[in-house]
Design goal:
Strand content of chain B: 15-25%
Largest sheet of chain B: 6 strands, mixed
Structural class of chain A: mainly alpha
Shape of chain A: globular
Helix content of chain A: over 70%
Order of helices and strands of chain A: HHHHHHHHHH
Largest interface: A-B, 21 and 28 residues
CATH class of chain A: Mainly Alpha
Number of domains of chain A: 1
Number of strands of chain B: 12
Number of helices of chain A: 10
Oligomer: heterodimer
CATH superfamily of chain A: MetI-like
Structural class of chain B: alpha/beta
Largest sheet of chain A: none
Strand order of the largest sheet of chain B: 8-9-10-5-11-12
Distance between the termini of chain A: 24 Å
Helix content of chain B: 25-40%
Shape of chain B: globular
Chain lengths: 252, 258
């Protein structure tokens, strides 16, 4: 059977079970909305432009935060990758920082910058930077020494060696780094917005909860999930695969 | 005609002396093989000529200039082709020419050497689309494109299958006759050394040193069945057998003493 058909059938089954649980009346309606009312909330949200505005604000935060995270992470990663001294000193702390869930930074961000959009961006930056830095570091470490030796016998040293051999050789890992930075930043964004004063998708989510609009809550959760999957599958996965093929790291 | 003179001496790694007091003088246009059992330091020696390893004692000279670091006057071909996967075949060959030649000159020169290794048809291919033998030919073209004074080859055909190796032997001979390059060729195959070289330098182990230096004056192409080739092979084989036994004995006694 076609993969697409299998996936659609699976979704129908899930929605069917959802409807069954709803009809059985296990939970009160105000806590557990019917599939149809969630679909309606989705439609109304987009038709009114509420979700569109929230999405726009979220993407603005994400874009700013992720760009900064990629920039900072790359710089950090290059320093740690190139300097053994720096890596021995700070490498371990980077792993520690990377393992901190981004929601933990939210209180700090709010205390530092208040309930502003910048506080959200700050959390997004922290969410993406460390994972980016770790990937760039291992990208530089994984440059095959054979290629460096070959380049040196051709009289390539110093900066040209870095830009003509080490950088292009790192590209596949760099792309993986961006993909992971996006995934981490997306989570950080939601955590930050959930506790912010808006606008943003996370803020809309909490707002809907405050007014006990569970249909909207579920609708927003669906939007968050769909965007995450779509960006990962359609943008990064494809991009990563084509780079891997080009670099000869994957079978075509 | 300038003579290419080289003198090697000592190399110490930690307290481990790979080899010492190696004196070798190689004339221009010669095809010289370094032959020896693994661990005799023949590859290290070649890396030192390339400038990838430092020289701990003595000095290596290329046309009266001391070798301090790697440079484009010595082209090197490694056991793995070491091509850049993000560049296509032609771009790989043009890599060392960038900034030294105009784009057009570089392109023409790359074309010429790709033709020499019979890969003109594969110019636009990426390196991972080529077989091992083809990749190695690209590596040879890349090294030659720099127009080096010496071509250093570190077991360049060691990872290839028998058939491909034979084809590449013949191609290398043609290239050598055409370009008149000095070639220093490291191998552990006695047949390969005798088939290709003007001169075979045999190295021994513990400590690494030169134990024999054969001149080979047989006409090319050389056949394996040739009586003189067989005799030479036997001679070298006997020499090396002693060396290999020495290593084995040492390893075994090491084993027992533990």
């Amino acid at each position: 059977m076609n993969t697409a058909i299998k996936r659609i059938l699976f979704l129908i089954v899930i929605i069917g079970i959802w409807q069954l649980v709803f009809t059985a009346g296990i939970f009160e309606e105000i806590v557990f909305p019917a599939p149809i009312s969630v679909a309606e909330a989705l439609y109304v949200g987009f038709a009114d432009g509420d979700f569109v505005g929230a999405l726009g604000a979220s993407f603005k935060h994400l874009f700013m935060g992720l760009s900064l995270a990629i920039l900072l992470g790359t710089m950090l990663g290059v320093i740690l990758g190139k300097s053994k001294q720096a890596d021995e000193t700070a490498g371990m702390y980077l792993i520690a920082l990377q393992s901190i869930p981004s929601i933990v930074w939210v209180p700090l961000a709010i205390m530092l910058f208040g309930f502003t959009e910048f506080a959200v961006v700050f959390v997004v930056v922290l969410g993406g930077t460390f994972v980016m830095a770790l990937n760039v570091r291992s990208a530089i470490h994984s440059v095959p020494p054979q290629l460096v030796r070959a380049a040196r016998t051709m009289g390539t040293n110093g900066a040209p060696l870095f830009f003509r051999v080490e950088v292009p050789s790192s590209v596949p890992y760099f792309i993986t780094g961006i993909r992971l930075a996006w995934a981490f930043s997306w989570r950080a964004l939601m955590a930050g917005e959930l506790l912010s004063n808006g606008p943003g998708l996370g803020y809309s989510l909490r707002y809907a909860q405050d007014y006990a609009r569970m249909d909207q809550v579920v609708a927003i959760i669906i939007i968050i999930g769909v965007i995450g999957a779509v960006v990962d599958q359609l943008v990064f996965s494809k991009f990563e695969k084509s780079v891997m093929r080009r670099w000869g790291l994957a079978k075509s | 005609m300038k003579n290419v003179g080289k003198t090697f001496e000592d190399q110490e790694q930690g307290s481990f002396q790979v080899f010492s007091d190696i004196d070798l003088d190689i004339k221009e246009n010669q095809f010289v093989s370094l032959l020896g059992p693994s661990g005799c330091g023949k590859s290290t020696l070649l890396s030192m000529v390339a400038g990838l390893e430092s020289v701990t004692e003595g000095s290596i000279m290329l046309e009266d200039k001391e070798i301090k670091k790697a440079g484009p006057d010595r082209g090197m071909v490694f056991q793995q082709a070491s091509l850049f996967p993000w560049l296509n075949v032609k771009e790989n060959v043009m890599f060392p020419l960038k900034k030294k030649l105009s784009k057009q000159e570089a392109s023409e020169r790359a074309d010429r050497f790709l033709q020499m290794v019979h890969l003109s048809r594969f110019k636009e291919h990426y390196t991972h689309e080529l077989s091992g033998g083809m990749q190695q030919r690209v590596a040879i073209a890349r090294a030659l494109a720099m127009d080096p004074k010496v071509l250093l080859m570190d077991e360049p055909f060691g990872a290839l299958d028998e058939q491909t190796r034979h084809i590449l032997h013949e191609e290398l001979m043609k290239i050598w006759e055409e370009t008149q390059k000095t070639i220093l060729f490291v191998t552990h195959s006695i047949q390969e050394a005798i088939k290709l070289s003007d001169r075979v330098v045999v190295m021994g182990t513990r400590p690494g040193k030169i134990i024999a230096d054969f001149k080979i004056d047989l006409p090319r192409p050389r056949k394996r069945e040739d009586q003189q080739v067989i005799e030479l092979e036997k001679k070298v084989m006997n020499l090396l057998e002693g060396e290999i036994n020495k290593v084995l004995k040492e390893e075994l006694s090491h084993e027992y003493s533990h």
